[in-house]
């Protein structure tokens, strides 16, 4: 959701017609295959140099973890599997562990907008 120049990650209830913001400066959430976590891009800088960073939110604890990719990623991240997130960086698709550890790894050259078909 966006309003007043800010973006929010919201939890909503369509039946009850209500919603609440759970994170500010967040965009492009993607639910993990097991339904336990969200990956999203978070605005971490007002400047144009690397304004976005990828984070995973554990929905049970609401703990937020920055991923090991430190480059500015302005993309819709997607889940490769329950342990791995993928995203476009430059003209390639990369992956990184969803637990905040490890290192980014090239997944597919000359590709963009990753999606896992299950």
Secondary-structure topology with pairs:
Elements: E1 2-3, E2 6-13, E3 18-24, E4 26-31, E5 37-43, E6 52-58, E7 64-66, E8 78-81, E9 84-89, E10 92-97, E11 105-108
Antiparallel strand pairs: 1-2, 2-3, 4-5, 5-6, 6-7, 8-9, 9-10, 10-11
Protein model, in words:
This protein is mainly β and 118 residues long. It is built from no helices and eleven strands. The chain has strands at residues 2-3, 6-13, 18-24, 26-31, 37-43, 52-58, 64-66, 78-81, 84-89, 92-97, 105-108. The strands form three sheets. The protein has a four-stranded antiparallel sheet with strand order 4-5-6-7, with no helix packed on it. A four-stranded antiparallel sheet has the order 8-9-10-11, with no helix packed on it. It is globular.
Number of strands: 11
Low-pLDDT runs: none
Mean pLDDT: 91
Please report the number of helical segments: 0
Strand order of the largest sheet: 4-5-6-7
Helix content: under 10%
Largest sheet, in brief, is: 4 strands, antiparallel
Intertermini distance:
27 Å
Order of helices and strands: EEEEEEEEEEE
The Rg value, from CA coordinates, equals 14 Å
Beta percentage is over 45%
Judged by helices, strands and strand pairing, the structural class is mainly beta
Coarse morphology: globular
């Amino acid at each position: 959701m966006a309003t007043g120049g800010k973006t929010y990650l919201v939890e909503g209830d369509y039946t009850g017609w209500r919603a609440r913001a759970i994170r500010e400066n967040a965009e492009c959430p993607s639910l993990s295959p097991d339904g336990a976590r969200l990956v999203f891009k978070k605005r971490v800088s007002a400047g144009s140099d690397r304004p976005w960073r990828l984070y995973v939110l554990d929905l049970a604890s609401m703990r937020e973890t920055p991923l090991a990719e430190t480059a500015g990623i302005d993309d819709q991240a997607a889940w490769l599997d329950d342990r791995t997130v993928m995203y476009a960086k430059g003209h390639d698709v990369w992956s990184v562990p969803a637990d905040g550890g490890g290192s980014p790894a090239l997944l597919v050259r000359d590709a963009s907008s990753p999606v896992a078909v299950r």
